[in-house]
Amino acid sequence: MSDQTADQIETGTELGEEPSEPRNEAPYDRQELQRAASLVLVHTGHGKGKSTAAFGTLLRAVARGWNVAVVQSLKSGKWNTGEEKVCRSLGVEWFAAGDGFTWESDDLDETRAKAVAAWEFSKELVASGKYHLVVLDEISYSMTWEWIDPADVVACLSERPEHVNVILTGRDMAAEVVAVADTVTEMVKVKHAFDEKIQAKKGIDF
Length: 206
Description:
This protein is of the alpha/beta class and about 210 residues long. It has a single domain, classed as 3-Layer(aba) Sandwich (Rossmann fold), CATH 3.40.50. It has helices at about 5-10, 50-65, 80-90, 110-130, 140-145, 150-160, 175-180, and strands at about 40-45, 70, 95, 135, 165-170, 185. Strands 3-2-4-5-1-6 form a six-stranded parallel sheet, sandwiched between helices. α3 (about 80-90) links the parallel β2 and β3 (about 95). It starts with 5 loop residues before the first helix and ends in a 19-residue tail after the last strand.
């Protein structure tokens, strides 16, 4: 199939085009479609919704009976987010392995060490083959800050068991990771409540 997205196929548009009238013929030949054993997805960009979209996909996976794990590279176990609560109740293995916001850190070396340890743990989860889906939430920052090597992340993705799907989230995802991903979505901020000094809201943001 071409590089068109599902939305483009549905509306019959290419990038940058306005939606056309509804199609009366399928824009592809089903016989040309192939099945993939697994996929790598990236949710990046400066808009809200990267982790939220990952957890939406996670729910689909759980509904299909998949074994699922989440590793959060920044959030600590103190956050007590709504998504963690509900996902744990559904049998998702959840690891909040970070140290929280870096600007609140009392020891940035320790914060970095926790992020590196979270990555080493993540590699083991992916390589184990135990899970059908592994979500590596906010992992991009560890690469941006040069705490972990993007080449190591690419190697992990490339060498994963063939049935293991991986979702990686975070702003400014490393170009090397984007290059090997199957689906990459960039969230673009149009407006955000925080710009108007509105704090994060329970049930919406966490």
